[in-house]
Design a protein that fits this description.
mainly alpha; 66% helix
Amino acid sequence: MTWSWFDLAFAWIGVAAAVALLALLFGTPLLRSPHTSSRWRDVVWLSWLGAVAYLLHNGEEYGVDLSGRLHAFPDALCANLRQPPYPECAIPPAFYLAVNLPLFWVAAPLGALLSRRHPFVGLAIYGVSFANGLVHVVPLFLGVGYSPGTVTAAVLFLPLSVWVAHTCFGKGRLGYKALALLIANGVILHVVLAGSMLLFLGGRIGVTAVLLVQVVNAALFLLLPWGEERFLGLGPSLGGTASPTSAPRG
């Protein structure tokens, strides 16, 4: 199995998009709600920031990692699954595009666009990033060591997730029930991803099926929080904002 130019380039394209979005986030009001005095308590702004953080995370996984290795995550994943490195690894190269493009190039930005009317949908990215952050960081404490993506997980995913939990959930905001569901949704998406990959490696499903599951997973990323927001009564609609009190300004 060989890599196409896009397999090797998509993370760098995402990083370039992240840099452009960071300029908009910190330099303009275009990706903010007009109702908050602080971007750090603005659900709309935080939703976009979560999408940007994942593009930067992809840059560490599939661009260059801490040790300077290029496109390091696929071989690291294969090693964890007791597979040989590429080109012998059985996981198809298209798997990584199927995981990342529908979810982080399409669904996460779409969730941020919807966040003004559906704040829980916009914040769904933090359920995914919190779960993924734990997957990367917990092994450090178990002696496993660094894996591609650990730095951005520790520096971006976990601190941002904790901040969002603190500022967007609680009394007068989205309730703690919503926070529990947000985390559960992130875990569900990881279980679907990992389960489909293991079914493929075990010969239970084929290449087409394992790729289609990743597209379905991206749809679930939006549909799960939308359905929960609509049908389960998660608390007050924030209208794309969170309470501006006690917030860092800017």
